[in-house]
Amino acid sequence: MSLYEYERNGNAQEIIRVLRNSDNDNIRERAATLLGRLDEHDDRDDIVQALITAAQSDDSDAVVGAAIDSLNDLGQDALEQLIATMADIDIDDGADWVRAKAFIQGLSSDIPELRMAAANGLGEIAEPEAVPELVERFQDPDPRVRARAARACGLMDDPRATDGLESLLTDPKAAVRLEAAESLGRIGNRQALTALLELYDDTDERVRRIAVNGFGKFSNDRPVEYLIDALGDASAAVRRTAVFSLIELLSNVPTEKSHEIRETVVEQLSEVEDETVVAPLVEILERSTQSSQRRNTAWLLGRVLDDESNRDAVDALVLALEDGEQMTRQFAATSLAEIGGTYAEAELLSLATDPDNDSEARGQALFTLGKIGDKETAEQIEQLLEDTEDQTVRKRAFSALSKLGGRTGQQQP
């Protein structure tokens, strides 16, 4: 059988056998890579041990690199086993400083994949004592290591890394510059903002995108005016990134500052051309898997749309009523009530009257219809009451009718 068939059949032991016994470097490298995809396998312990052995003793640098990458893919525990074995350190007691000591030793390995993995591990542990060691890796000859070290410093949110991260903003590799910019955004101090502003006016569109993307990692309102300004950038890609960063910023700020920053964003956006903002917002609402981003997007759409002329936006909000979590549904309902219009009304009626839809989603649609509907809407809601036994839907239907002028001939439950 081939490695492909072993993978398809989930035969981890045969893949391990190939990794240990094959004379072909390419085949062993492929076997090591495949083992990294078997995280949930019953033989996970054997997989991890086989990869550790390969990482320590295989004669091929490519196989060693693939084994380390796979251990990294298998998770922090597998990575820690590798680092502990190679550093000859016992990390079973679980103390962060002991684990960090092992990973710090890994940063000086001759193997770039191990240095990358060590930087990843230190970012997960977030041990402050490792920051100086990570900053030293900003000079690493391998750009992948520089990028991972920059990311780890951002995850630690330690201002001591700011000078080093600023130096990486001119790195020849775009991936390194991006990680440095994002980490400066996470640190979010005045020096970090100043550093990103130096990229903000760059003539290269890609560099401006890096700066604007970094602004979204802040947890304060310092970059808001610059993000709003970026919505007027000549580059559509920069404008789109600015919208994404605004939503990310709203998701990052502390709860006690959220209202103030929201109002600042809305005030600034009121002066920006609708289409510049709306299309990226619709994309976020439709594609994002992060609840906080979807909630903020649903809320913001109702404040930047003047009417229902953008049907894509209305459709996205109605869809959020159907498949969003509770807060997203509520924000989408509120925004649809702000937008109003016959198209929104028709789409909401379609959602509310379809018995195949979720009861809560239908209820949210009825809540909104109670705010924007007319006499014909009331008649259709009355018909819905005749056709449904769903108590959640009935309760919201009666509430909507009450707001639309009441109902005659029947008693409310």
From TrEMBL:
Highest taxon of source: Archaea
Listed SUPFAM superfamilies: ARM repeat
Gene3D superfamilies, A to Z: Leucine-rich Repeat Variant
InterPro entries according to UniProt: ARM-like, ARM-type_fold, PBS_lyase_HEAT
SMART domains in the cross-refs: EZ_HEAT
Name used for this protein in its record: HEAT repeat domain-containing protein
Organism: Halovenus salina
